[in-house]
Amino acid sequence: MRSGALFGLVFAGYLAVAVVLWWHAWSTHPTTVTTCGCGDTSLFLWFLEWPAYALAHGHNPFYSTALFHPGGINLLANTSVLAIGIPLAPVTWLFGPVATLNVASTLGPALSALSMFWLLRRWVAWTPAAFIGGLVFGFSPFVFVNLAGAHLMTGILGLLPLMVACLDELLVRQRRRPLLTGAFLGLLVTLQFFLSTEVLALVVLCAVAALVLLIASTLRHPGHLAARAPHAGRGLLAALAVAAVFLAYPVWFALGGPAHLSGLVWPTIEPGHGGITLGNLWHLRFMTALRGEMQATGGYEGPALPDPEYLGAGMIAVQELSGTAGDDAAAALDGQYKYSERIGTVGLWSQWPLGTVTPLELGLGWPRALHATVHRSDGDLSVYVVHLPSVRPGDTAARDQGVSELAALVAADTAQRVIVMGDLNTASTDPALNSLTGELADSRQSVDGGFGFSWPAAFPMTRPDHVLSRGLTVVSDQVLAANGSDHLPVVAGFSL
Predict the structure, then answer these.
(1) Which of 14, 89, 175, 341 is deepest in the core (most CB within 10 A)?
(2) Per-residue DSSP letters for 256-281?
(3) 408-433 pLDDT, tens per residue?
(4) Superfamily classification of domain 315-495
Protein backbone atom coordinates (compact mmCIF):
# COMPACT_ATOMS: atom_id res chain seq x y z
CA MET A 1 0.00 0.00 0.00
CA ARG A 2 1.29 3.44 -0.89
CA SER A 3 2.34 5.68 1.95
CA GLY A 4 -0.33 8.32 1.28
CA ALA A 5 -3.11 5.75 1.16
CA LEU A 6 -1.82 4.10 4.33
CA PHE A 7 -1.78 7.35 6.28
CA GLY A 8 -5.22 8.23 4.98
CA LEU A 9 -6.61 4.89 6.09
CA VAL A 10 -4.94 5.16 9.50
CA PHE A 11 -6.26 8.69 10.00
CA ALA A 12 -9.76 7.55 9.06
CA GLY A 13 -9.54 4.87 11.74
CA TYR A 14 -8.38 7.34 14.38
CA LEU A 15 -11.04 9.83 13.34
CA ALA A 16 -13.75 7.19 13.67
CA VAL A 17 -12.60 6.49 17.24
CA ALA A 18 -12.70 10.22 18.01
CA VAL A 19 -16.22 10.58 16.61
CA VAL A 20 -17.39 7.64 18.74
CA LEU A 21 -15.67 9.23 21.73
CA TRP A 22 -17.70 12.44 21.37
CA TRP A 23 -20.78 10.80 19.87
CA HIS A 24 -23.06 12.39 22.47
CA ALA A 25 -22.16 15.78 20.96
CA TRP A 26 -22.18 14.82 17.27
CA SER A 27 -25.36 12.75 17.50
CA THR A 28 -27.42 15.57 19.04
CA HIS A 29 -26.54 19.07 17.86
CA PRO A 30 -22.81 19.77 17.55
CA THR A 31 -23.35 23.52 17.32
CA THR A 32 -25.02 23.73 20.73
CA VAL A 33 -23.88 20.62 22.71
CA THR A 34 -20.35 20.46 24.16
CA THR A 35 -18.35 17.73 25.87
CA CYS A 36 -18.93 19.20 29.32
CA GLY A 37 -21.18 21.82 30.89
CA CYS A 38 -18.52 22.83 33.41
CA GLY A 39 -16.85 26.21 33.86
CA ASP A 40 -13.67 25.79 31.81
CA THR A 41 -15.62 24.88 28.71
CA SER A 42 -17.31 28.28 28.64
CA LEU A 43 -13.93 30.01 28.95
CA PHE A 44 -12.49 28.04 26.04
CA LEU A 45 -15.56 28.81 23.95
CA TRP A 46 -14.67 32.46 24.36
CA PHE A 47 -11.01 31.76 23.55
CA LEU A 48 -12.13 30.10 20.32
CA GLU A 49 -14.62 32.84 19.43
CA TRP A 50 -12.41 35.86 20.00
CA PRO A 51 -9.75 35.25 17.29
CA ALA A 52 -12.48 34.68 14.70
CA TYR A 53 -14.16 37.94 15.74
CA ALA A 54 -10.83 39.79 15.86
CA LEU A 55 -9.85 38.68 12.36
CA ALA A 56 -13.25 39.61 10.97
CA HIS A 57 -13.20 43.10 12.55
CA GLY A 58 -9.51 43.98 12.37
CA HIS A 59 -8.83 43.72 16.11
CA ASN A 60 -5.74 42.42 17.89
CA PRO A 61 -6.17 38.65 18.42
CA PHE A 62 -3.71 38.82 21.34
CA TYR A 63 -5.72 41.26 23.48
CA SER A 64 -9.36 42.12 24.17
CA THR A 65 -11.37 44.32 26.52
CA ALA A 66 -14.49 42.27 25.85
CA LEU A 67 -13.53 40.13 28.84
CA PHE A 68 -12.54 41.54 32.25
CA HIS A 69 -13.50 45.03 31.12
CA PRO A 70 -12.05 47.65 31.36
CA GLY A 71 -8.62 46.13 32.00
CA GLY A 72 -9.12 43.43 29.41
CA ILE A 73 -7.37 40.10 28.95
CA ASN A 74 -3.98 39.23 27.50
CA LEU A 75 -4.66 36.06 25.56
CA LEU A 76 -0.98 35.14 25.30
CA ALA A 77 -0.73 35.17 29.10
CA ASN A 78 -3.63 32.70 29.24
CA THR A 79 -4.45 29.28 27.79
CA SER A 80 -6.01 30.85 24.70
CA VAL A 81 -5.00 28.11 22.18
CA LEU A 82 -4.69 30.62 19.33
CA ALA A 83 -3.04 27.89 17.25
CA ILE A 84 -6.49 26.28 17.18
CA GLY A 85 -8.80 29.29 17.21
CA ILE A 86 -7.18 31.05 14.25
CA PRO A 87 -7.04 28.07 11.80
CA LEU A 88 -10.59 27.08 12.76
CA ALA A 89 -11.95 30.62 12.46
CA PRO A 90 -13.97 29.67 9.32
CA VAL A 91 -15.79 27.02 11.38
CA THR A 92 -16.56 29.66 14.01
CA TRP A 93 -17.81 32.11 11.40
CA LEU A 94 -20.13 29.52 9.86
CA PHE A 95 -21.32 27.48 12.84
CA GLY A 96 -20.24 29.21 16.05
CA PRO A 97 -17.66 28.46 18.77
CA VAL A 98 -19.43 25.35 20.11
CA ALA A 99 -18.98 23.65 16.76
CA THR A 100 -15.35 24.78 16.72
CA LEU A 101 -14.79 23.22 20.15
CA ASN A 102 -16.33 19.94 19.01
CA VAL A 103 -14.27 19.93 15.82
CA ALA A 104 -11.07 20.62 17.77
CA SER A 105 -11.90 17.98 20.39
CA THR A 106 -12.50 15.43 17.63
CA LEU A 107 -9.63 16.28 15.27
CA GLY A 108 -7.15 16.82 18.11
CA PRO A 109 -6.76 13.23 19.35
CA ALA A 110 -7.01 11.84 15.82
CA LEU A 111 -4.21 14.11 14.58
CA SER A 112 -2.15 13.44 17.72
CA ALA A 113 -2.49 9.72 17.13
CA LEU A 114 -1.57 10.10 13.45
CA SER A 115 1.50 12.14 14.37
CA MET A 116 2.68 9.46 16.78
CA PHE A 117 1.94 6.76 14.19
CA TRP A 118 4.22 8.60 11.75
CA LEU A 119 6.97 8.88 14.37
CA LEU A 120 6.76 5.22 15.37
CA ARG A 121 6.94 4.16 11.73
CA ARG A 122 10.48 5.57 11.77
CA TRP A 123 11.41 3.17 14.56
CA VAL A 124 9.36 -0.01 14.05
CA ALA A 125 8.86 -2.14 10.99
CA TRP A 126 5.49 -3.62 11.93
CA THR A 127 2.71 -1.20 10.96
CA PRO A 128 0.10 -2.57 13.44
CA ALA A 129 2.51 -1.83 16.30
CA ALA A 130 2.81 1.78 15.13
CA PHE A 131 -0.96 2.01 14.79
CA ILE A 132 -1.53 0.77 18.35
CA GLY A 133 1.16 3.13 19.65
CA GLY A 134 -0.55 6.06 17.96
CA LEU A 135 -3.90 4.98 19.35
CA VAL A 136 -2.54 4.77 22.90
CA PHE A 137 -0.87 8.18 22.59
CA GLY A 138 -3.72 10.06 20.93
CA PHE A 139 -6.47 8.58 23.10
CA SER A 140 -4.67 8.15 26.40
CA PRO A 141 -6.47 8.83 29.70
CA PHE A 142 -4.44 12.04 29.95
CA VAL A 143 -5.85 13.27 26.63
CA PHE A 144 -9.38 12.09 27.34
CA VAL A 145 -9.57 13.73 30.77
CA ASN A 146 -8.24 17.04 29.47
CA LEU A 147 -10.52 17.17 26.44
CA ALA A 148 -13.55 16.26 28.55
CA GLY A 149 -13.04 19.59 30.35
CA ALA A 150 -12.16 21.43 27.11
CA HIS A 151 -8.50 21.76 28.14
CA LEU A 152 -7.35 21.89 24.54
CA MET A 153 -3.91 23.20 25.50
CA THR A 154 -2.99 19.91 27.17
CA GLY A 155 -5.35 17.58 25.30
CA ILE A 156 -4.01 18.15 21.77
CA LEU A 157 -0.45 16.80 21.50
CA GLY A 158 0.06 16.41 17.77
CA LEU A 159 3.18 18.60 17.63
CA LEU A 160 5.14 16.60 20.20
CA PRO A 161 5.99 13.58 18.00
CA LEU A 162 7.06 15.94 15.21
CA MET A 163 9.43 17.76 17.56
CA VAL A 164 10.80 14.44 18.80
CA ALA A 165 11.39 13.40 15.19
CA CYS A 166 13.34 16.60 14.54
CA LEU A 167 15.50 16.04 17.60
CA ASP A 168 16.01 12.41 16.61
CA GLU A 169 17.17 13.58 13.20
CA LEU A 170 19.50 16.28 14.56
CA LEU A 171 21.02 14.33 17.42
CA VAL A 172 20.95 10.69 16.32
CA ARG A 173 20.26 9.95 12.66
CA GLN A 174 21.77 13.05 11.01
CA ARG A 175 20.65 12.14 7.49
CA ARG A 176 19.01 15.41 6.48
CA ARG A 177 20.30 18.98 6.21
CA PRO A 178 20.62 20.33 9.76
CA LEU A 179 19.61 23.90 8.94
CA LEU A 180 16.38 22.80 7.27
CA THR A 181 15.54 20.35 10.08
CA GLY A 182 16.39 22.97 12.69
CA ALA A 183 14.26 25.60 10.99
CA PHE A 184 11.33 23.21 10.92
CA LEU A 185 11.86 22.48 14.62
CA GLY A 186 11.81 26.24 15.29
CA LEU A 187 8.47 26.53 13.48
CA LEU A 188 7.05 23.66 15.54
CA VAL A 189 8.20 25.38 18.73
CA THR A 190 6.47 28.56 17.57
CA LEU A 191 3.22 26.74 16.90
CA GLN A 192 3.45 24.98 20.27
CA PHE A 193 3.83 28.37 21.98
CA PHE A 194 0.49 29.44 20.53
CA LEU A 195 -1.05 26.08 21.43
CA SER A 196 0.27 25.55 24.97
CA THR A 197 3.18 27.18 26.77
CA GLU A 198 2.72 24.57 29.52
CA VAL A 199 3.43 21.68 27.20
CA LEU A 200 6.23 23.66 25.51
CA ALA A 201 7.93 24.12 28.89
CA LEU A 202 7.70 20.37 29.50
CA VAL A 203 9.13 19.68 26.03
CA VAL A 204 12.10 22.00 26.63
CA LEU A 205 12.85 20.41 30.02
CA CYS A 206 12.64 16.89 28.58
CA ALA A 207 14.76 17.86 25.56
CA VAL A 208 17.48 19.31 27.78
CA ALA A 209 17.43 16.19 29.98
CA ALA A 210 17.61 13.94 26.90
CA LEU A 211 20.51 15.96 25.50
CA VAL A 212 22.44 15.66 28.77
CA LEU A 213 21.85 11.90 28.89
CA LEU A 214 22.86 11.54 25.26
CA ILE A 215 26.10 13.43 25.83
CA ALA A 216 26.80 11.42 28.99
CA SER A 217 26.28 8.16 27.11
CA THR A 218 28.85 9.12 24.47
CA LEU A 219 31.58 10.43 26.79
CA ARG A 220 33.36 7.10 26.55
CA HIS A 221 33.61 7.69 22.80
CA PRO A 222 34.78 11.31 22.47
CA GLY A 223 35.53 10.88 18.78
CA HIS A 224 31.93 9.88 18.11
CA LEU A 225 30.68 12.88 20.07
CA ALA A 226 32.99 15.29 18.28
CA ALA A 227 31.89 13.97 14.88
CA ARG A 228 28.19 14.49 15.60
CA ALA A 229 28.33 17.73 17.56
CA PRO A 230 28.70 20.15 14.58
CA HIS A 231 25.65 18.76 12.77
CA ALA A 232 23.53 18.86 15.91
CA GLY A 233 24.83 22.29 16.89
CA ARG A 234 23.97 23.88 13.55
CA GLY A 235 20.48 22.42 13.63
CA LEU A 236 19.75 23.48 17.22
CA LEU A 237 21.06 27.00 16.55
CA ALA A 238 18.81 27.21 13.47
CA ALA A 239 15.83 26.12 15.58
CA LEU A 240 16.69 28.71 18.22
CA ALA A 241 17.07 31.46 15.61
CA VAL A 242 13.75 30.72 13.89
CA ALA A 243 11.88 30.48 17.18
CA ALA A 244 13.49 33.71 18.41
CA VAL A 245 12.45 35.61 15.27
CA PHE A 246 8.84 34.45 15.35
CA LEU A 247 8.37 34.53 19.12
CA ALA A 248 10.23 37.71 20.14
CA TYR A 249 7.13 39.91 19.94
CA PRO A 250 4.61 37.32 21.25
CA VAL A 251 6.82 36.53 24.26
CA TRP A 252 7.19 40.23 25.03
CA PHE A 253 3.44 40.69 24.64
CA ALA A 254 2.74 37.82 27.03
CA LEU A 255 5.19 39.08 29.66
CA GLY A 256 4.90 42.86 29.25
CA GLY A 257 1.95 43.63 26.96
CA PRO A 258 -1.45 45.02 27.93
CA ALA A 259 -3.13 43.14 30.82
CA HIS A 260 -0.09 40.92 31.26
CA LEU A 261 0.14 38.90 34.45
CA SER A 262 2.82 39.49 37.04
CA GLY A 263 3.43 38.31 40.57
CA LEU A 264 1.03 35.79 42.04
CA VAL A 265 -1.81 35.16 39.61
CA TRP A 266 -3.92 33.79 42.48
CA PRO A 267 -2.84 35.78 45.56
CA THR A 268 -4.82 33.58 47.95
CA ILE A 269 -3.10 30.38 46.81
CA GLU A 270 0.42 29.58 47.96
CA PRO A 271 2.99 28.93 45.20
CA GLY A 272 3.13 25.23 44.41
CA HIS A 273 -0.26 24.51 45.97
CA GLY A 274 -2.09 21.92 43.92
CA GLY A 275 1.01 20.99 41.95
CA ILE A 276 3.04 17.80 42.04
CA THR A 277 6.22 17.56 44.07
CA LEU A 278 8.62 14.64 44.24
CA GLY A 279 7.33 13.76 47.69
CA ASN A 280 3.83 13.28 46.31
CA LEU A 281 5.04 10.01 44.79
CA TRP A 282 5.36 8.37 48.22
CA HIS A 283 3.38 10.63 50.57
CA LEU A 284 -0.33 10.02 50.16
CA ARG A 285 -2.47 13.16 49.93
CA PHE A 286 -6.13 13.57 49.06
CA MET A 287 -7.76 15.94 46.57
CA THR A 288 -10.01 17.54 49.17
CA ALA A 289 -10.29 20.90 47.40
CA LEU A 290 -11.11 19.23 44.08
CA ARG A 291 -13.71 17.11 45.83
CA GLY A 292 -15.41 20.31 47.05
CA GLU A 293 -15.38 21.79 43.55
CA MET A 294 -16.77 18.57 42.06
CA GLN A 295 -19.52 18.55 44.66
CA ALA A 296 -20.46 22.15 43.92
CA THR A 297 -20.33 21.93 40.13
CA GLY A 298 -21.17 18.30 39.40
CA GLY A 299 -22.99 16.94 42.42
CA TYR A 300 -20.21 14.49 43.32
CA GLU A 301 -20.91 12.98 46.75
CA GLY A 302 -18.09 10.47 47.00
CA PRO A 303 -14.98 10.73 49.19
CA ALA A 304 -11.94 12.85 48.38
CA LEU A 305 -9.77 10.68 46.13
CA PRO A 306 -6.01 10.20 46.54
CA ASP A 307 -3.63 12.18 44.35
CA PRO A 308 -3.15 10.24 41.09
CA GLU A 309 0.64 10.56 41.21
CA TYR A 310 0.90 8.53 44.43
CA LEU A 311 2.79 5.30 43.79
CA GLY A 312 2.51 3.66 47.21
CA ALA A 313 0.37 0.74 48.31
CA GLY A 314 -3.39 1.19 48.43
CA MET A 315 -3.67 -0.88 51.60
CA ILE A 316 -1.17 -2.22 54.12
CA ALA A 317 -1.92 -5.10 56.50
CA VAL A 318 0.38 -5.52 59.51
CA GLN A 319 0.64 -8.29 62.08
CA GLU A 320 2.43 -8.68 65.44
CA LEU A 321 1.44 -5.19 66.68
CA SER A 322 2.11 -6.10 70.30
CA GLY A 323 3.85 -3.89 72.84
CA THR A 324 5.27 -0.71 71.29
CA ALA A 325 5.14 -2.17 67.76
CA GLY A 326 1.59 -0.87 67.27
CA ASP A 327 2.59 2.68 68.15
CA ASP A 328 5.67 2.43 65.94
CA ALA A 329 3.57 1.27 62.98
CA ALA A 330 1.04 4.04 63.57
CA ALA A 331 3.81 6.65 63.73
CA ALA A 332 5.17 5.43 60.40
CA LEU A 333 1.86 4.98 58.56
CA ASP A 334 -0.73 7.38 59.99
CA GLY A 335 0.78 10.34 58.18
CA GLN A 336 0.54 8.57 54.83
CA TYR A 337 -2.83 6.83 55.16
CA LYS A 338 -6.00 8.66 56.06
CA TYR A 339 -7.91 5.58 57.22
CA SER A 340 -6.74 2.87 59.60
CA GLU A 341 -8.00 0.32 62.15
CA ARG A 342 -6.15 -1.78 64.73
CA ILE A 343 -7.69 -4.79 66.48
CA GLY A 344 -5.61 -6.93 68.79
CA THR A 345 -2.22 -7.36 67.17
CA VAL A 346 -3.29 -6.77 63.55
CA GLY A 347 -3.91 -3.52 61.71
CA LEU A 348 -5.09 -2.21 58.37
CA TRP A 349 -4.06 1.11 56.79
CA SER A 350 -5.95 2.26 53.69
CA GLN A 351 -6.04 5.19 51.31
CA TRP A 352 -9.78 4.52 50.92
CA PRO A 353 -12.46 4.94 53.60
CA LEU A 354 -13.19 2.01 55.90
CA GLY A 355 -16.74 0.96 56.66
CA THR A 356 -17.74 -1.54 59.31
CA VAL A 357 -14.74 -3.23 60.95
CA THR A 358 -15.35 -6.54 62.75
CA PRO A 359 -12.89 -8.38 65.05
CA LEU A 360 -12.35 -12.07 64.27
CA GLU A 361 -10.98 -14.78 66.58
CA LEU A 362 -10.42 -17.59 64.02
CA GLY A 363 -9.35 -20.51 66.19
CA LEU A 364 -8.27 -18.38 69.13
CA GLY A 365 -10.06 -17.16 72.24
CA TRP A 366 -9.21 -13.54 71.43
CA PRO A 367 -9.24 -11.44 68.21
CA ARG A 368 -6.13 -11.65 66.06
CA ALA A 369 -7.84 -10.89 62.76
CA LEU A 370 -10.32 -8.37 61.38
CA HIS A 371 -12.76 -7.89 58.54
CA ALA A 372 -13.29 -4.46 56.98
CA THR A 373 -15.39 -3.09 54.17
CA VAL A 374 -13.24 -0.74 52.11
CA HIS A 375 -15.18 1.89 50.16
CA ARG A 376 -13.85 2.73 46.71
CA SER A 377 -15.50 4.90 44.09
CA ASP A 378 -15.80 1.88 41.78
CA GLY A 379 -17.33 -0.39 44.44
CA ASP A 380 -16.54 -1.88 47.84
CA LEU A 381 -13.82 -4.35 48.75
CA SER A 382 -14.31 -7.00 51.44
CA VAL A 383 -10.93 -7.24 53.19
CA TYR A 384 -9.71 -9.75 55.77
CA VAL A 385 -6.50 -9.08 57.69
CA VAL A 386 -5.51 -12.35 59.31
CA HIS A 387 -2.92 -13.80 61.66
CA LEU A 388 -3.91 -17.44 62.16
CA PRO A 389 -2.78 -19.56 65.14
CA SER A 390 0.79 -20.80 65.12
CA VAL A 391 1.74 -24.35 64.25
CA ARG A 392 3.72 -26.61 66.57
CA PRO A 393 5.26 -29.98 65.65
CA GLY A 394 2.39 -32.44 65.63
CA ASP A 395 -0.13 -29.78 66.68
CA THR A 396 -2.01 -27.98 63.92
CA ALA A 397 -5.51 -28.18 65.41
CA ALA A 398 -5.88 -24.49 66.27
CA ARG A 399 -4.46 -23.43 62.87
CA ASP A 400 -6.73 -25.88 61.04
CA GLN A 401 -9.75 -24.57 62.93
CA GLY A 402 -8.76 -21.00 62.03
CA VAL A 403 -8.44 -21.90 58.33
CA SER A 404 -11.81 -23.66 58.43
CA GLU A 405 -13.56 -20.70 60.09
CA LEU A 406 -11.95 -18.24 57.65
CA ALA A 407 -12.95 -20.39 54.67
CA ALA A 408 -16.54 -20.47 55.96
CA LEU A 409 -16.59 -16.66 56.31
CA VAL A 410 -15.25 -16.21 52.78
CA ALA A 411 -17.74 -18.70 51.34
CA ALA A 412 -20.61 -16.83 53.00
CA ASP A 413 -19.29 -13.41 51.97
CA THR A 414 -21.59 -11.99 49.27
CA ALA A 415 -19.13 -9.30 48.18
CA GLN A 416 -17.97 -9.53 44.58
CA ARG A 417 -14.41 -8.50 45.41
CA VAL A 418 -12.66 -10.11 48.38
CA ILE A 419 -9.07 -9.90 49.62
CA VAL A 420 -7.54 -12.03 52.38
CA MET A 421 -4.03 -11.06 53.46
CA GLY A 422 -1.77 -11.91 56.32
CA ASP A 423 0.22 -14.60 58.07
CA LEU A 424 -1.85 -17.76 57.67
CA ASN A 425 0.89 -19.95 59.22
CA THR A 426 0.23 -22.31 56.32
CA ALA A 427 2.63 -23.06 53.48
CA SER A 428 1.45 -22.77 49.91
CA THR A 429 1.79 -26.55 49.51
CA ASP A 430 -0.08 -27.40 52.73
CA PRO A 431 -3.36 -29.23 51.94
CA ALA A 432 -4.96 -27.31 54.82
CA LEU A 433 -4.97 -24.27 52.55
CA ASN A 434 -7.15 -25.96 49.92
CA SER A 435 -10.40 -24.87 51.54
CA LEU A 436 -9.33 -21.26 51.00
CA THR A 437 -7.66 -21.56 47.60
CA GLY A 438 -10.78 -23.31 46.35
CA GLU A 439 -12.61 -20.01 46.92
CA LEU A 440 -9.76 -17.56 46.35
CA ALA A 441 -6.82 -17.11 43.99
CA ASP A 442 -3.32 -17.06 45.45
CA SER A 443 -1.41 -13.98 44.24
CA ARG A 444 1.90 -15.83 43.86
CA GLN A 445 0.42 -18.66 41.84
CA SER A 446 -1.66 -16.26 39.74
CA VAL A 447 1.45 -14.62 38.30
CA ASP A 448 3.53 -17.85 38.15
CA GLY A 449 6.02 -16.21 40.48
CA GLY A 450 7.79 -19.28 41.78
CA PHE A 451 8.26 -20.07 45.45
CA GLY A 452 8.21 -16.55 46.88
CA PHE A 453 9.41 -17.72 50.28
CA SER A 454 8.89 -15.19 53.07
CA TRP A 455 10.00 -16.94 56.30
CA PRO A 456 12.34 -16.94 58.09
CA ALA A 457 13.70 -13.61 56.89
CA ALA A 458 17.33 -14.62 57.43
CA PHE A 459 17.03 -17.68 55.18
CA PRO A 460 13.51 -17.99 53.70
CA MET A 461 12.40 -21.61 53.26
CA THR A 462 8.59 -21.41 53.15
CA ARG A 463 5.74 -19.01 52.50
CA PRO A 464 3.22 -18.72 55.33
CA ASP A 465 2.27 -15.17 54.24
CA HIS A 466 -0.43 -14.96 51.59
CA VAL A 467 -2.57 -12.55 49.60
CA LEU A 468 -5.69 -14.32 48.35
CA SER A 469 -8.45 -12.73 46.30
CA ARG A 470 -11.74 -13.17 44.48
CA GLY A 471 -13.20 -10.96 41.75
CA LEU A 472 -9.87 -9.19 41.11
CA THR A 473 -7.11 -9.59 38.55
CA VAL A 474 -3.69 -10.16 40.10
CA VAL A 475 -1.00 -8.31 38.14
CA SER A 476 2.04 -8.70 40.41
CA ASP A 477 3.42 -10.42 43.51
CA GLN A 478 6.72 -9.44 45.09
CA VAL A 479 8.64 -10.41 48.21
CA LEU A 480 10.56 -7.42 49.53
CA ALA A 481 13.82 -7.23 51.40
CA ALA A 482 14.03 -7.79 55.16
CA ASN A 483 12.97 -4.83 57.29
CA GLY A 484 13.61 -6.02 60.84
CA SER A 485 10.82 -8.60 61.08
CA ASP A 486 11.35 -12.33 60.98
CA HIS A 487 8.98 -12.37 57.96
CA LEU A 488 9.70 -10.75 54.59
CA PRO A 489 7.02 -8.30 53.37
CA VAL A 490 4.74 -9.52 50.58
CA VAL A 491 3.30 -7.03 48.09
CA ALA A 492 0.54 -7.95 45.61
CA GLY A 493 -0.79 -5.75 42.85
CA PHE A 494 -4.34 -5.86 41.47
CA SER A 495 -6.19 -4.45 38.51
CA LEU A 496 -9.35 -3.05 40.10
Answers:
(1) 14
(2) HSTT---S-SSTTS-TTTTS--GGGG
(3) 999 999 999 999 999 999 998 899 99
(4) Endonuclease/exonuclease/phosphatase (3.60.10.10)
